[in-house]
Specification:
Blueprint lengths: L8 H21 L6 H14 L3 E2 L11 E5 L2 E3 L14 E10 L2 E10 L5 H20 L6 H14 L3 E2 L5 E3 L6 E5 L16 E4 L2 E3 L5 E3 L6 E3 L5 E3 L2 E4 L6 E2 L3
Antiparallel strand pairs: 1-4, 2-4, 3-12, 4-5, 6-10, 7-8, 7-9, 9-14, 10-13, 11-12, 14-15
The protein binds 2-amino-4-trifluoromethylsulfanyl-butyric acid (MF3) and cobalt (II) ion.
2-amino-4-trifluoromethylsulfanyl-butyric acid binds next to β5.
């Protein structure tokens, strides 16, 4: 369970700061024609120059430091020198950094050039859903409270919430209990407590919620080929608004 002692919060803040810096520097280079491998190299360099290790590199055999997932790719896209960003693409970048014994984990989705209005609405909705989930993640509320507000918000906009991938506790390990689904029923599940570190990360699709994994054994895509967006923050639960470590 990702319970962080008070003396360790500054370590979590440091890992979160590095993840944010990596995301921001990657966003600054995303434009038509850049390869996903180049985007990854920018994020990886930030993490390493800050004296951290990329949390994802080698995790269950994942071969890169960053996940770059475009359009119908939901998460875990493997960077490639031959995959180039095109006009109108939705590009999701996901970064993790490990330093002083603690992980940070966050993701953003950006649009390139002139995306469709529906794609823009999808991206806006995933950030808002994440932030509503974060506001609900306070001591005394439950895991189900968080998932239900996210699901309700996303489905009201006409989009769907991925079921088979969820947020998670985080701390000395990248993935710790509890699982944090982006769907569910209010009042159900574990009660949240002060000091619990969570990665809240809705993945939402224009079409159906079903996904499948490509033959590279990593890239998760929507089953119906529809666009998908992902946004993630690492937070620490408290009695009021959580502390957002990757803002
Ligand atoms: N943010 C993702 C996660 O929490 C990234 C994991 S990619 C992996 O789960 F390579 F590390 F698996
Ligand atoms: Co995560």
């Amino acid at each position: 369970m990702g319970i962080i002692a008070d003396r360790d919060i500054r370590m979590m803040k440091e890992s979160g700061r590095i993840v944010r810096k990596a995301l921001n520097e990657m966003k600054a280079v995303i434009e038509v024609g850049v390869s996903t491998a180049f985007i990854e190299s920018v994020g990886r360099k930030v993490i390493e120059d800050e004296g951290a290790a990329p949390s994802f590199l080698g995790y269950n055999g994942y071969p890169a430091a960053i996940c770059v997932s475009i359009n119908d790719e939901v998460v875990h896209g493997i960077p490639s020198r031959t995959r180039k960003v095109n006009d109108g693409d939705l590009v999701s970048i996901d970064a993790g950094a490990f330093k002083n014994g603690f992980h940070g984990d966050a993701a953003d989705t950006v649009t390139v050039g002139l995306p469709s209005p529906l794609a823009l609405l999808l991206v806006k909705t995933v950030y808002e859903a994440r932030d509503i989930g974060i506001e609900t993640a306070r001591a005394g509320n439950t895991i189900g409270d968080v998932g239900s507000v996210i699901q309700k918000y996303v489905e009201e906009k006409g989009f769907s919430v991925v079921r088979s991938l969820v947020g998670h506790g985080i701390g000395r390990k990248l993935h710790e209990p509890p699982q944090v689904p982006n769907f569910g029923r209010s009042g159900r599940g574990m009660k949240l407590t002060d000091g619990l570190a969570l990665a809240i990360e809705p993945m939402i699709n224009i079409g159906g919620y079903r996904v499948r994994t490509l033959h590279d054994n990593w890239t998760v895509v929507t089953a119906d080929g529809s666009l998908s967006a992902h946004a993630e923050h690492t937070i620490i639960v408290s009695t009021g608004s959580p502390l957002i470590l990757t803002a």
